[in-house]
Design a protein that fits this description.
This protein is mostly helical. It contains 4 helices and 2 strands; from the N terminus they run ββαααα.
């Protein structure tokens, strides 16, 4: 089965952002996350995967809007799976 990864497009304050996370980006996020350091890896994941020409604009929003990092990370991370669901089968 071949799965085509599509960019994740979100609107933040009437600005469109496109993210293209890869397996490597997600693995880096997981490897960087520590019990006392959860927000910085999410911030890095988002700034690494956003379209380069919008990176500065995104970083400014992430650095000024409380809670945006975690909310946006959840949206991008979930959408990047392309609708694939994991279920337990007994």
């Amino acid at each position: 089965m071949k799965i085509k990864i599509k960019p994740v497009v979100v609107m933040i304050a009437d600005i469109e952002f496109s993210f293209t996370p890869s397996v490597s980006d997600h693995n880096n996020y997981m490897n960087e996350m520590m019990p006392n350091n959860k927000v910085a890896p999410m911030h890095q994941y988002l700034s690494r995967t956003v379209e380069p020409e919008k990176k500065d604009e995104l970083v400014e929003l992430l650095n000024t809007v409380p809670g945006l990092v975690s909310e946006l990370f959840a949206e991008v991370s979930t959408a990047s799976k392309g609708g694939i669901k994991v279920t337990l089968k007994n």
